[in-house]
Amino acid sequence: MSINVYIEKLVYGGEGLAYLEGKSVFVPFVLPHETVRATIVKEGKRFVRAHPGQIVIPSSLRMTPTCPHFEQCGGCHYQQMSYDDQVQFKVEILRETLSRIGKIDLLVPIQMVCSPPWNYRNRSRFHLNRQAGSVKIGYFESGSNRLCPVEECPISSHRINQVLHGLLCAIKEPRFPKGIGEIEVFAQDREAMLDLFSNVPFSQVSPIGDILFEHLPLLKSIAFHTPDHTEIVGPGAITVHAAGFSYRISHTVFFQTNASLLDKIVEVAVGPVEGGEVALDLYCGAGLFTLPLTRRYQKVIAVDANPAAIDDLRFNALQEKVQIEAYSNAVDRFLTRRDIPRPNHILMDPPRIGLGPQVTQEIIRLFPESITYISCDPATLSRDLSALIIAGYKISSFHFIDLFPQTFHIESIVQLTRGTS
């Protein structure tokens, strides 16, 4: 069924919001103040999801997308507008979310840190599909598991695209084995590593290692994830340089995916911190923020649930000759310990689900003098900030970090200090 709707505004998630017969209508790939003829793809009691067809009345901001796969590939959401307009809309969405969910009216300006709009990603995940004897590689189409074959990705770094070109050659080899469903690429500086996901045992896909090393001169390490186990070929990690430190990053360990903003993220997150005796780094990963914190605090305690990340962090601290305490533990369990020294500062970079009530209450119990909250989701950030503000904290600075141009994703770095009565 087709409908004509007027787009009121953009909302978080990459969609435009319209209204029809008392229901909210969500339409992707549109701009505010456009009239769109769209096809309904899902309908509930209070909402409708639709896919745009004809743009009946286009916005003056509308542009021709750079990538020929835009709207088919599910990776990008905002190529129909300029980068400057993307940033402005994201800031509006961020403010609206803070107000609606957290009831937060910011008394400080949102400072913007922008990225190069293209070729910024250092990690990409490709899907493979074998049909009629040939193998295709690409991304899933928007809202489906159908493959959109690609030969180049304009938001991925030049290194990622180098690897993609090598993969396109490798999959044409007659000896390229069946069973590989996904390949994740992480490439930084002049090194790359791959995580391969297979639905067949390792013995049936092991020859692919020789093929990949032949076609990918940047390749340093491969991890094969199969139903029976994970097999590593190579050193199991690559080295990333950021903020004056070297970081070993192993397979399965999270690291920031915008290669161009690593130094700036650390500057914004750690730069305003005054220093003191004890700092906690929660959800620390391989230590992107942990190591810089050692320049300001006598003791830095770092926590992450991923044992591989803690192994990398300990290795990185040893190589950089800095002292830390690192614990492989879920943050909510770790914070219930009563032997944690009271921190002067807590830095936290949680996953998309945010802190949640338990972690938030434990942080309030510890009541540090200052907090740095790094967030990748404005809704959970709004919820958690509201609880911290009620507990006596005030926002001293707020940065919007555009780590993901052309997409709806919003990264924020918020500095909080204890209020004075």
Under the CATH scheme, the architecture of the largest domain is: 3-Layer(aba) Sandwich
Low-pLDDT windows of residues: none
Structural class: alpha/beta
For the largest sheet, list the strands in their spatial order: 7-22-23-21-20-17-18-19
Largest sheet: 8 strands, mixed
The Cα radius of gyration reads: 23 Å
The end-to-end span amounts to 59 Å
CATH level-four homologous superfamily name of the largest domain: Vaccinia Virus protein VP39
Percentage of residues in DSSP E strands? 35-45%
- CATH class label of the largest domain: Alpha Beta
The helix count comes to 10
Question: What count of domains describes the coordinates?
Answer: 3
Choose one word for the global shape. Answer: globular
Query: CATH topology of the largest domain, what is it called?
Result: Rossmann fold
Q: Name the helicity range.
A: 10-25%
Description of the structure:
- With 421 residues, the chain is α/β, with parallel strands linked by helices.
- It has three domains: 2-62, OB fold (Dihydrolipoamide Acetyltransferase, E2P) (Beta Barrel); 96-116 and 258-418, Rossmann fold; 123-238, OB fold (Dihydrolipoamide Acetyltransferase, E2P).
- 24% of the residues lie in helices and 35% in strands.
- The protein contains ten helices and 23 strands.
- The chain has helices spanning 83-102, 158-170, 202-205, 208-215, 262-270, 290-293, 307-320, 331-334, 356-366, 378-390; strands spanning 2-6, 9-11, 15-20, 23-28, 35-43, 47-57, 110-113, 123-131, 134-140, 147-149, 180-188, 191-198, 219-225, 230-233, 237-242, 245-250, 276-282, 297-304, 325-328, 345-348, 370-375, 393-401, 411-418.
- The strands form four sheets. It has an eight-stranded mixed beta sheet, with helices on both faces. It has a seven-stranded mixed beta sheet with strand order 10-9-8-11-12-13-14, with helices on one face. A six-stranded mixed beta sheet has the order 1-5-6-4-3-2, with no helix packed on it.
- The radius of gyration is 23 Å and the shape is globular.
